[in-house]
Amino acid sequence: MSGTGNLLTDRPELYEERFPDPERLAARWAEATLRRYGSGHRVLDLGCGTGRDAAWLHRAGRRVTAVDTSAAMLAHARRHHPGPDYRHADMRDADLGRVFDAVLCLDSALLHCHTNPELAAALAVCARHLAPGGLLVAELRNGAFLLGDGSLLDGPATATFRRGSTTYTSRTTLRVDHGAQLLRRHRAWTADDGSPPHEEHTAWRLLFPQELRYFLAVAGFEVLALHDGPGPRTEPPWREGDRPGTTLRADRLHLVARLAPRPHHDGDTTP
Ligand SMILES: C[S@@+](CC[C@H](N)C(=O)[O-])C[C@H]1O[C@@H](n2cnc3c(N)ncnc32)[C@H](O)[C@@H]1O
């Protein structure tokens, strides 16, 4: 198969079917977070996927640039979620030549950076694209969740969804690669439309809260909030008016960090 080899990334219409967000909770949470911390209107969405959040923020009055490495995602975004300035760029080395008031990185997009150098590079990209005092707002899986709750690793888990007259079934097995600190996923897809079965291997970095704080400090960020919810993908989900939480036990991390006003080039990496 061409593209990334990940079915839902290569078929964005299926991504939206599998992970519906009809109320645009993710975008609303991002907007509420930007307002709570007084962000300006220029927003960069890193790993924007289908573009549904970027477009909602655009309609809410933000000036949004959105980047992704998937050509299929960008084509879908331009067609179905117009408004933002969509660019093909990699969060590990993007250089858009301008700065923003906030960088968003939602639904674990940051965790596609698997190694320490990749993570450091992505955070350097965030810093390079922020005006002094700009905000990084991210929402991602919490590596620490797996310390106390291994239920994610029970499996395999089967899920089905329909699009048109086709039923898609996925059988997913997750395992932890302890040495690399990666959550590795094997997923086998079948569909009842006669298309051949499809297998994919995906991985996410398992980032722990203190480790994330360290990476952020080295990149010149001050952490304003880091908590496990409520957020757009927590149970129960975030609702308008909810305040940020204070615990870090559950599956999702919600991060707000501010770029320090002065460049952080004094060699001091003390977090
Ligand atoms: C789980 S999706 C999240 C999409 C979107 N942020 C959302 O919340 O719906 C992760 C996205 O990150 C993109 N991605 C993965 N690695 C990337 C990289 N190095 N630079 C930019 N985008 C990347 C993928 O193509 C995919 O669209």
Task: Describe the protein's architecture and organization.
By secondary structure, the protein is α/β, with parallel strands linked by helices. 25% of the residues lie in helices and 31% in strands. A 7-stranded mixed beta sheet has the order 3-2-1-4-5-11-10, sandwiched between helices. A 4-stranded antiparallel beta sheet has the order 6-7-8-9. The protein starts with 6 loop residues before the first helix and ends in a 12-residue tail after the last strand. The mean pLDDT is 94. Bound molecules: S-adenosylmethionine (SAM). S-adenosylmethionine binds next to strand 2. S-adenosylmethionine (SAM) binds next to strand 2. Residues 43-134 form the Methyltransferase domain. Pfam families: Methyltransf_25 (PF13649). InterPro entries: Methyltransf_25, SAM-dependent_MTases_sf.
